[in-house]
Amino acid sequence: MTRAFPPMQTISTGLVVAIVGFFSSFPIVLQGLDAMGASPEEAASGLMTAAIAMGLAAIALSLRYKLPISVAWSTPGVALLAVSATPVEGFSGAIGAFLCAGALTVVAGLWKPLGRLAAAIPTTLAQAMLAGVLMPLCILPFKAAVEIPWQALPVILTWFIAGRFNRLFAVPAAVIAAAIIVILNAGDTTIMPERLIAAPIWAMPTFSLASAIGIGMPLFIVTMATQNIPGIAVMRSFGFTPVPGKLFSAVGGASLLSAPFGAPATCLAAITAAMCSNQDSHPDPALRYWSAIMGGVFYCLFGVFAVAITGFAAHADPLLMGTLAGVALIGVLANAIHAALEVVAEREAAILTFAITASGITVFGLGAAVWGLLAGGIAYLVTNWLR
C-alpha cells in the first residue's frame, strides 16, 4: 500500500540532495550556456528549465516505479559545452544539438543496439575524454588566484576547508563565500534582480551536421557514459532493479521537451542516486523512493527562482564564476583520471584521448572531444588487434 505522505527522513534527505545537486554545479551550467552563445535571459531560462525538468522527471519516475530514481542535469555534459566553440548558428544551433543528444538517448533506450554501442565505448576512453574536457575548467581557479587573488583565494580556501569536514557541502560552501564576495564588491550598486521569477524563453532550434556531430554526439556519449549508465549501476548496487531502457528513454524525452527552452541534457544521477538509495535515506528500502521524489520537489522550487540566481551571478567577475566551476569539478576530474588510467594496457589510448581533448582544437568544424575519442578509439583498436 502506497503512503499518502513522505516520511520526514526522506524530506530532509531530498532537501540535501537538491542543495548538493543544484548548488554544486549551477555555475558550470551557466558557463556552458554562455559558451554556447546564450544571452543572460536565455541562460536563466536554460537553468530554470533544466532544474524543473530534472525535478519533474525524478518525481514522475520514482512514483511510477517506486524506486529512488534521482535525476540530474548532465554536469559532464555542460562542462563539455563550456570548453566547446560556439556554433556558427549561435545559441539556436546549440539548441539543435541538445535536441539531437536527447533524441539519441531516447533511441538508445528503445533500440538495444544503440544502447549496447554506447555502453561498448571503453570506460577508459570515455573517462579520458571527460578528463580532457574538465582540465581547462579545473585550471581556471588557479589562474584566477593570480589575477583576482582577493576574490578567488577565499573561495578556493573555503572549498578546501569545508571539504575536510564534508565533501558534499564543499562546493555549496564555496558558493556562499562567492556570494559574500559579490555583495562586498558591489558597494552601493544594487545586485538584486528586478524579478525573482520569470517565464522560460522558447528558442527556435537550428540543425546542422557540424553541431550534431561536434556538440550533440559528444554530449550524448559523455552523458550516457558518465551519468546514465553509472546511475543504473548505483541503484543496482543498493539492491534495486531499474529497467535501463525505459529510464534512458524517459530522461531523453525530458531532454527533448526542455531543450527548446535552453536546457542542455536531463539524465540519471549517480552521486545523488547513492544518497537516495542508501540506508541514511530511510531504513526501509521500500520507502527510499520518497527521497528522490522530495529531491525533485526541491529542484523544481530552486528552478522557479533560477532567474534571481542568474541575475545575482551576473554581477560576479567572470573569473570568480570560473573559480566556482573549477573547484566544483576537481573531484570529478580526479575520478575521471583515475578511471582513465586504471587499465594498464589501455593507458596509451586513454592518454591520447585526454591530450587531444584537452588541447581544445577544432578541425573541419568538429571539436576536440570528437577528435580525441576518435584518435583514442583507433589507438585502442589497433593495440588490441596487435595483441
TrEMBL record:
InterPro entries xref list: Benzoate_Transporter
Gene Ontology molecular function: any one: benzoate transmembrane transporter activity
Keyword annotations from UniProtKB, A to Z: Membrane, Transmembrane, Transmembrane helix
Entry annotated with the keyword Lyase: no
GO cellular component, one term: plasma membrane
Transmembrane spans: 12-31, 43-63, 70-88, 94-111, 123-145, 165-186, 207-227, 247-277, 289-313, 319-337, 349-382
NCBIfam families the record matches: benE
Name of the molecule in the record: Benzoate membrane transport protein
Native organism: Ruegeria faecimaris
